[in-house]
């Protein structure tokens, strides 16, 4: 019995050894596989690389191509706004019937060729308000025309000469009530009373397209008051002697302006003017105009405008005006 068990044990052990040996021999030989691996054949045809020889080509002049260069750029805009309100006689909330309208036209042209530059800008504004049982009043009235010729001296500096005209369209009044309680008005100004003509030469600093500063070391301004009787209702007479219609001043002038889109559909336009008469340096004229315009769509915009002014030939205190308007505006080129 023991002999049988021993024989069977050795037979089982022998067969296990053979199975393990066959398993180890069946493992792949990576060296042989690498030798048998086939790679694609390389391109035996020669490849020629082109030799590039750069050559300077002279472009024909615009005249030879029958092309013309336009050195002029123009911008035009005009707008109108209307405001109306009416109430029935028994309207419990109170109110007054009113009608108001305003209009504005602006035009700017720019000519630049080489070191030479010419800019002309026109701004016309007029607005009126009529309330029931009251005399009509102006809400805006301005004629502004500015021209400048400049010669470039360096990257940001120019030598310039400018001519500027400013006046108004309509008569201006102050309003009060008499002893009977009726509204009366007093004439203060009218077209060319006053009218200002300013000539200036000097240097302009313009580091970017939307900003400049003009330093007018040689500036002359003529003040016109064609209504020689205006002093009777306006004693200051805009600095012109009574009975005269003209006054000339020599001064130092600084003009700074910015016209920039500060955000999408939002434009800021500002202009500051300082006028220092060489004979009255203690009394300097200052004017600041600021307009913020938001473009709602192609033809509708909202604008907030303000003016701060000091001129002792007009009033002894600082003057100010402000206007908020919503209206239709058309610009071209668009």
Describe the structure.
The chain has 334 residues and is mainly beta. The protein has a single domain, classed as Beta Barrel (Outer membrane phospholipase (ompla), Chain C), CATH 2.40.230. It is 9% helix and 54% strand. The protein has 2 helices and 14 strands. The protein has helices at residues 2-25, 30-36; strands at 72-85, 98-113, 116-131, 137-152, 157-167, 172-177, 183-189, 195-208, 211-224, 246-263, 266-277, 285-295, 300-310, 319-332. The strands form 2 sheets. Strands 1-2-3-4-5-8-9-10-11-12-13-14 form a 12-stranded antiparallel beta barrel. Strands 6-7 form a two-stranded antiparallel ribbon. The longest helix is centred in the N-terminal third of the chain and has 24 residues, at 2-25. It is elongated and about 140 Å long. The termini are far apart. The relative contact order is 0.08. Mean pLDDT is 88; it is low at 23-27.
Coarse shape? elongated
Give the number of DSSP strands: 14
Structural class: mainly beta
| Strands side by side in the biggest sheet | 1-2-3-4-5-8-9-10-11-12-13-14
Describe the largest sheet: 12 strands, antiparallel, barrel
N-end to C-end Cα span:
116 Å
CATH class identity = Mainly Beta
- What is the CATH topology classification name? Outer membrane phospholipase (ompla), Chain C
Binned, the helix content reads: under 10%
Task: Point out poorly predicted stretches.
Answer: 23-27
What is the CA-atom radius of gyration, in angstroms? 42 Å
> What fraction of the residues are assigned to beta strands by DSSP?
over 45%
SSE order in H/E notation? HHEEEEEEEEEEEEEE
Instruction: Give the averaged pLDDT, no decimals.
Output: 88
- What is the tally of helical segments? 2
């Amino acid at each position: 019995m023991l002999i049988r068990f021993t024989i069977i044990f050795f037979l089982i052990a022998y067969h296990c050894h053979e199975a393990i040996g066959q398993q180890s021999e069946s493992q792949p030989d990576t060296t042989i596989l690498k030798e048998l691996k086939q790679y694609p054949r390389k391109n035996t045809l020669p490849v020629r690389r082109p030799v590039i020889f750069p050559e300077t080509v002279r472009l024909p002049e615009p005249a030879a191509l029958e092309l013309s260069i336009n050195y002029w750029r123009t911008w035009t805009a005009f707008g109108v706004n209307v405001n109306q309100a009416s109430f029935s006689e028994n309207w419990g909330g109170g109110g007054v019937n009113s009608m108001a309208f305003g209009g504005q036209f602006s035009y700017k042209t720019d000519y630049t060729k080489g070191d030479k530059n010419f800019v002309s800008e026109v701004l016309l504004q007029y607005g009126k308000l009529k309330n029931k049982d009251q005399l009509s009043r102006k809400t805006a009235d301005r004629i502004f025309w500015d021209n400048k010729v400049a010669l470039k001296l360096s990257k940001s500096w120019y030598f310039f000469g400018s001519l500027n005209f400013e006046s108004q369209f309509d008569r201006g009044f102050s309003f009060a009530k008499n002893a009977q309680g009726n509204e009366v008005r007093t004439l203060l100004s009218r077209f060319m009373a006053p009218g200002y003509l300013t000539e200036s030469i000097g240097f302009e600093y313009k580091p970017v397209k939307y900003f400049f500063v003009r330093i007018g070391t040689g500036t002359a301004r003529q003040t016109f008051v064609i209504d020689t009787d205006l002093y009777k209702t306006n004693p200051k007479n805009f600095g012109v002697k009574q009975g005269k219609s003209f006054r000339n001043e020599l001064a130092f002038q600084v003009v700074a302006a910015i016209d920039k889109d500060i955000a999408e559909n939002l434009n800021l336009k500002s202009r500051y003017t300082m006028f220092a008469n060489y004979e009255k340096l203690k009394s300097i004229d200052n004017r600041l105009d600021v307009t913020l315009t938001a473009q709602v769509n192609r033809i509708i915009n909202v604008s907030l405008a303000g003016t701060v002014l000091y001129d002792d030939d007009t009033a002894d205190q600082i003057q100010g005006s402000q206007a908020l308007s919503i209206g239709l505006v058309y610009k071209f080129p668009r």
